[in-house]
Amino acid sequence: MAKTEPGWELYRSFLAVMREGSLSGAARALGMTQPSLGRHMRELEETLRAPLFARSPQGLAPTDLAHELVPHAQAMASASAALRRAASTGQNAIAGVVRITASDVIGAEVLPPILAAFRQQHPGIVIELSLSNQAEDLLRRDADIAIRMVRPTQGALVARHIGKIALGVYAHQRYLEANGRPKTMADLAAHALIGFDRETAYIRSMRPAGIPYTRENFALRTDSDLAALAAIRAGYGIGVCQVGIASRDPALRPLFADSFLLHMDAWVVMHEDQRRSARTRALYDHLATALSEYAKPLATRVRRPPAARKSR
Fold it and tell me: By residue range, what is the domain housing residue 61?
């Protein structure tokens, strides 16, 4: 008798248990009853003929096999979500669901007005926006479109370079009034600097030269770019910010603008199969055009009509 393959619903329940850490939490997350979810786990273990969790008064402890299954179950979840997006309308319809992944700052600070303009043109498209500083896997279809600061190397991906996004050193006017304006980069060592908590290879490659931009010098350490930006706006101290974002707030004052400027390359990326999807291609082209404009130096940007500028 052939061995029955576990259905996707069993793996979906398994992922929820791994994510929530308990049957009760997983049941709430999936809108199921705890006995039903427990039956899913027993059925999956019986089908696989191996235990996935060690049960104790303290809760569930995943076995080594459970940890090994997670990436494969996540791939199934991504494929299921991609199937639902593809089936939301026909491939050639300018309607349906498109999922974008971007960094926290790009997604929260740069994309909203760009997506609002796209919505006016294509109200039939539903956008799912996933914000993370970790690159989601387009080959595994975790998203349809990605905005990345590192050039993709996979041959199956289509990438459009949108330019170099400028970064500068900024402080809020309140902070400068209370603490004085540093005259040289060496003076920054005496100020409240805002920076990273954990240094990554990308941060090392972007580390500003000539300023005390190290963890030991930071008065506020965070790996959330949104939190760092909020701290600059609150007048906590001095930090690095995208020039295009800072330019919207006249109270954010650039420091050493004539001598210090970093540039961050950016790409809009999609899987080559998405070229056949009219809705994905429409959003991809819109993002590439709008983000290319955003990446331009301020002095060379196209002047927007008053209504468009006001909406920002």
Answer: 8-85
